[in-house]
Amino acid sequence: MIDDAQLERWFCDEVLPLEASLTRYLRRNWRSSEQIMDIRQDIYEAALNGGRQGLPTNTPGYVFTIARNILINRSKRERIVHFEQFSDMESIDLAVDRSATERHLEARDALRRAQQGIDRLPPRCREVVRLRKIEGLSIREAAERMGVGVDTIERQLVLGIRAMADAMLGGAGKIRRGPSSAADRARRQ
User: Fold this and answer.
1) What is the largest distance, in Å, between two alpha-carbon atoms of the chain?
2) How far, CA to CA in Å, does 32 sit from each of 26, 27, 79?
3) CA 163, CA 136: separation in Å to the nearest integer?
4) What is the pTM (predicted TM-score) of this model?
5) Residue 117 to residues 8, 55, 84, 130, 168, Cα–Cα distance (Å)
6) pLDDT at 51 > cutoff 70
7) Contacts (Cβ under 8 Å, ≥6 apart) of 48
8) In the structure, how many helices (H) and strands (E) does the chain have?
């Protein structure tokens, strides 16, 4: 365990001088410049917490590894939307700014239509959309979890997203296979 004076010296002498290059790294790798300061503070906090256990021999590598991991985790959190949490929209009690009421209503309506679009999908297609777009799995991870090929995941995702978009725009939300489907190609021959 490192004492506070030693930890403070390490932080001031080795971590803080990295601030300019760390900020440039964050600006290059994060899309929202308003969040850079907060992310940098999270990195500093993680570095201090880790430094309490033992000071690293390669401080720049340590700090930039923390930065990369924090960016990855934030990115994953922002991509994940849990539709199940909003299944009963009327039961949500929100303190709504009166000027934003219309925006909130439109967002609720869009979320409700998205949930209905997902519910209308065939089970396999629904599972692909859930794994890729809600849980944030890669195509390969989704294919492994479902025990199918990558091409099946890609095809089902395209069909599912098209059907959801159709449902959200007021259509039936049915899976429509284009003229390039195998059945259509066989009929043309």
Assistant:
1) 80
2) 10, 8, 14
3) 19
4) 0.44
5) 54, 52, 13, 12, 7
6) yes
7) 7, 11
8) 9, 0
